[in-house]
User: Fold Glycosyltransferase family 2 protein from Pengzhenrongella frigida.
Amino acid sequence: MTAELSFGIPVFDGEKYLPAALASVQQQDLENIEIVISDNGSTDATEEICREAARTDARIRYLRSPVNHGGAWNYTRVAQCSTSPVFSWMAADDIKRPSFASSCVAALAEADATVVMACPRTQLIDGDGAVFEDLHDGSMGLDAARPHERVRNLLRSQASHVVYGAIRASALRRTRGVRPVIGDDMVLLTELFCQGRMVLVDDRSFWQRRHEEQFSAQGEGQVKWYAPDSSVRLAFPQTRLNIELYRAVTASSLPAVEKVRCWAQIAPYWALPRWHGMARDVLTAVGPVRS
Assistant:
């Protein structure tokens, strides 16, 4: 029987939070799920944790690479290995509460074809698992009728967390996938929202963890997370992200007029407010690389 939803867990050296993250998807109240773990050459106890979990739970497929190919490669791998009509990325330090899968699958089943994904309300947790903030995500506007409105609302709200919602696999396959750039989540979401809408599930079943060790807090080290062999000096991360956002719209099947409307949202709602990031890209390229 085909699973109703696949969780994809890309992980590298995740021994600290992985047990809780993995347990949270194993404890979903929707039993017909698939769990795909891709271990990107971990050097800590991640392999042992995963192999033991796979030994005791037939829903788990554990894949291991002997070397670290970077985060973009690993996120792509779990998505490509999914066999379900609905897919959800699961960060190895987050928590998805028991009703996440059932509520999202039900929402997508009830929605029409213009809905490409569902995401529950989100709360933030700290390193100890304590909730410290409710995201004010009730009015993000990602259900707007027209693509350029959804793109504008995505960029304005910076709602990158919804990439961890539940995505129709058919819609995900129509994108270019995860791009090896910082901000890949915003690029992928732009492509998805050019296709269709998101339904927000009024169920606080996604806990996103914020802690000091996560890669997004590591400055220029983020570049190496995406592509370990890349040059930090010549990465131009903010500039490349801006370009990829335009390419995301270009790659869509939208009519020309609507593409222009979507392109018109990128400068005022994303690129121009982040001009200092592009300036830093240039300074990094011409000056000494900061450690």
